[in-house]
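User: structure tokens for this one?
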Amino acid sequence: QVQLVESGGGLVQPGESLRLSCAASGSTVSAYAIGWYRQGPGKQRELVAAISRSGSTNYADSVKGRFTISRDNAKNTVYLQMNSLKPEDSAVYYCNAGLYYGGIYHPSKEFWGQGTQVTVSS
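Assistant:
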């Protein structure tokens, strides 16, 4: 089974950038589609971006044009490049290993990382 560990979060000012990493172990990340989710205070967890095994991607409308998801199977890692960050992007970001079909990401219930905190504030 795959284990996922997120990293790269932190405190940044509005307009700045961060790159989050989702490192896989116990299995190869190439065997999975990966989704990045976030959960802000008092909010439900929401899908931010997803990437299929073949590299197809989709994004939440709120991050289109600002965030980019990518995968490096050789490094067993999936990235989320976040540019032009806004205060409303502040949340704990999680990655999930799941399935991608019909243009839709389908998360697994069991393969979640522990999350990394992103705070955007001046």
